[in-house]
Amino acid sequence: MTKDVRVRFAPSPTGPLHIGGVRTALFNYLFAKKHNGTFVLRIEDTDQNRYVEGAENYIIDALNWCNIPFDEGPGKNEKFGPYRQSERKDLYKAYAEELIASGNAYYAFDTAESLDAHRKDHEANGKTFIYNWHNRLKLSNSLSLSAEDVQQKLDAGEDYVVRFKSPQDETLHLKDMVRGDIKIDTNILDDKVLFKSDGMPTYHLANIVDDHLMQISHVIRGEEWLPSLALHYQLYKAFGWDAPEFAHLPLILKPTGKGKLSKRDGDKLGFPVFPLEWIDPKTNDVSRGYKEDGYFADGVINFLAFLGWNPGTEQELFSLDELVEAFDIERVHKAGARFDPDKIKWFNHHYMQEQNNDELAEAFKAQRDELKDIDVNYIAMAVNLIKERATFISDLWDLSSFFFEAPKAYDEKAFKKAIKDDTRALLSELATLINSIEDFSTETLQNTVKGWITSKEIGFGKVMMPLRLALVGALQGPDVFDIMFMIGKQESIARIENLATAI
């Protein structure tokens, strides 16, 4: 790639960052790092009516948690700052006026009421109202009015917008890195508003101007912006600027595969659609986040990378560095990617096994009051024995509680299966045997108990099942001799005797 790669993630601070936005940020990050480029964060807050307090900080916190921090943006390496569009609003008007001067845009003074009347009139005749070449000379704008009338309206402070003048009878030939060549008939395009009466630019103008001034080389964004591609190409042409290369990512679909994934889908099916927990500042409603639900950032990122992209191999598990190395924008799919809540759990289970036992133990201890007085090194030893069965840290207690407290009850089905007529007598002998063992190591326990069972010429299940039941309260858990070593001789004997008494 000959030119310096500069990509941007440009969310609006209108609420929490959706997981689809995280995927867009990730693909921009991977592309930038693959080509030794720069990942820019720009906050597109031109719509002040929808601005939500705290949303910008949430976006930054989410990117940092996902380990895909921006290189350049608000408060960080501000080479082309400011990076909030609301702080750049004074420069957009000059660009709008430049387009008017070149004949590529015009003032429009139509009121909301008059436009609504035109729409209703078209609907009554079975037509769709489009403000463009076929009717703009019949409407109230600087193309249909005299120069004197236009100046009079401007001097009087009448509300106006600036609209782009879409060409007539042209075919646009556009290119997209994901979708290939695209043809657009300009006759079907409307004259989009570029500058609003409140003195703020629309997304279209601000986006193009900022991408140009920030020297953005590649625009990688969601499929929902594909209908804007024709206008954006025309704006670059109208300004006489080189356009960046574009790539429009596929939609993230509901688990059913039909329709775009929404927060409602997550609420209904019981999974988050936001990276971090979000508390609505107006309603105090809480939306779940992947971090707070116990997911590891590496697992979330690995999962998101496969929503719309694949490496062309059978490999599914990638570190972030491996994703950077493998990522190729040409392997991004056109078709929507189905969100699979079970698959992200599969990834999380894998990354659970990769976690440091000491760090897991600290997090586990922080979650459970029962562990507050227990040595974290002991907790780490227990975690090491059971984490292969866990997907989340919150799973650890159910899998390991017997390391920290004796069972308060016995699983009914397990009790019926393990207890026979001679079980009590066998348990009594076993307790005596265990009490005689001086070297209370896993290996010595195993050799001694199994040797005793062999010498009695009885089936292993007659002893091992009741022993496990005594230690755990159920027929599950890691190796019984590891459990006995962990809880110690006296506790092991006490639990065996408790079961004997319960028979």
Would you kindly provide a written description of the structure presented here, covering whatever features stand out?
With 503 residues, the protein is mainly alpha-helical. The chain folds into four domains: 1-72 and 250-354, HUPs (Rossmann fold); 90-195, Glutamyl-tRNA Synthetase, Domain 3 (Glutamyl-tRNA Synthetase, domain 3, Alpha-Beta Complex); 355-399; 412-502, Arc Repressor Mutant, subunit A. It has helices spanning 19-34, 55-65, 89-101, 112-124, 147-155, 203-213, 229-239, 263-269, 297-305, 320-326, 341-354, 357-367, 376-386, 396-400, 412-418, 423-435, 442-456, 461-472, 480-487, 489-502, and strands at 6-9, 38-41, 105-108, 161-164, 171-176, 180-185, 193-195, 218-222, 245-249, 252-253, 278-279, 286-287, 337-338. Helix 1 (19-34) links the parallel strand 1 and strand 2 (38-41). The longest helix has 16 residues, at 19-34. The protein starts with 5 loop residues before the first strand and ends with a helix. The mean pLDDT is 95.
